[in-house]
Specification:
Layout: E1 2-3, H1 14-22, H2 35-48, E2 54-58, H3 61-72, E3 77-82, H4 86-89, H5 94-97, E4 102-105, H6 114-126, E5 135-142, H7 153-165, E6 170-173, H8 177-182, H9 189-195, E7 198-202, E8 212-216, H10 225-231, H11 240-249, H12 254-275, E9 279-282, E10 288-294, H13 295-301, E11 305-306, E12 308-314, E13 317-323, H14 330-339
Parallel strand pairs: 1-11, 3-4, 3-5, 5-6, 6-7
Antiparallel strand pairs: 2-8, 7-8, 9-10, 10-13, 12-13
């Protein structure tokens, strides 16, 4: 069976596993108060050229999104996101569970439009009954988006400027950050840090066994952050396990090397699909490929290939997702091409 259903099917990069094994019997303080975490944070600060950034390591993406949003918002605030945004669709109501409404606006191939965001905020505050409504207290975007698309520098700058105008934080979900950055040469992680008030560097989907790194970039870290993380059940006692992994990810540019591997193989598959006349549901440059397939062909395909269901296209067709990752190998890609 070929596995192209997601980008976290394997365990972790061998260098991450080696680092975990090598440090396995080292005794350290708990809860991330160890030298491995301090060293990893220092490497990230250097990488994004943000020496004053506050960094916290958590285990998974849903947990990270909930902790960031809940800790930064007041109890009367909601978070603005694209209707297709992860926090609006695939978080099992985790954001609402913490007491914050997800305020959706249209998504355009997964992206929010700065003009529409501005108009939504203008309309909200012009409403005489605004005090009776959920206050838009944060803007959430994903990079890459849930459809594998990317914001350009101009688009990010426009959204960031509106957030600054209204004094609300911009939160960038970077669960697949390495894949987004590797798919273009217009933006760096340093740029992401400059536009976002808070973002996170995804490890779970990019070569770590588990883990995400939250980065507060503007001196706006919520008070008692460790306490709030623990209240959410998100404080790992053996926090050193996260530090060790991110230290490895940010050594010798491993994080971006893994991103490039996924993009290289995704482009090969994408071009092969086009040559064979397949209909791509949406064009994007990252590691997620969305293909419209006849339902009759899917029955045969799923016997040999693990793919991701995305949505129904019509009665006879389904949109599926083929995802490459840090672990994708040439042999698997060639085998997939033969099956297709």
């Amino acid at each position: 069976m070929l596995y192209f259903s997601c980008d976290y099917a394997e365990g972790c990069h061998p260098k991450v596993l080696e680092a975990l094994s090598k440090t396995n019997m080292v005794s350290t303080p708990g809860y991330g108060e160890d030298e491995f975490c301090r060293q990893a944070k220092a490497k990230i600060r250097d990488y994004i050229n943000c020496p004053d950034a506050d960094i916290y390591f958590l285990v998974g993406g849903t947990q990270t999104n909930q902790v960031v949003i809940d800790s930064m918002l007041s109890n009367y605030d909601g978070v603005v996101a694209a209707a297709t945004g992860h926090v609006a669709v695939h978080e099992a109501g985790a954001i609402e569970y913490s007491g914050h409404k997800v305020i959706t606006i249209p998504g355009h191939e997964g992206k929010i439009d700065a003009t529409e965001l501005k108009q939504m905020l203008v309309d909200h505050y012009a409403d005489d009954s605004a005090e009776h409504m959920v206050n838009p207290g944060m803007v959430y975007i994903s990079y890459p988006t849930e459809y594998g698309t990317l914001y350009s520098r101009d688009e990010l700058e426009a959204v960031s400027s509106i957030c600054k105008e209204y004094n609300i934080p911009l939160f960038i979900d970077g669960a697949r950050l390495a894949y987004g950055l590797a798919a273009q040469d217009d933006l760096s992680m340093e740029d992401i840090a400059s536009y976002a008030d808070v973002f996170y560097i995804g490890g779970t989907k990019v070569g770590a066994l588990f883990g995400e790194a939250i980065v507060f970039t503007k001196g706006n870290t919520p008070k008692h952050m460790i306490t709030q993380i623990k209240q959410h059940g998100a404080l790992l006692a053996k926090g050193r396990l996260l530090g060790v992994q991110f230290d490895a990810l940010f050594t010798d540019d491993l994080y971006m090397q893994m991103g490039k591997n996924a993009i290289l193989h995704a482009n090969t598959i994408r071009e092969d699909l086009k040559k064979k006349g397949y209909h791509l549901y949406m064009e994007n440059p990252t590691n997620q490929i969305f293909v419209v397939m006849e339902n009759s062909k899917l029955e045969a395909l799923k016997k040999e290939v693990s793919y991701g269901f995305w949505e129904k296209y019509d009665e006879a067709h389904t949109v599926i997702r083929i995802a490459t990752s840090w672990a994708t190998e040439n042999a698997s890609v060639e085998a997939l091409k033969k099956i297709l």
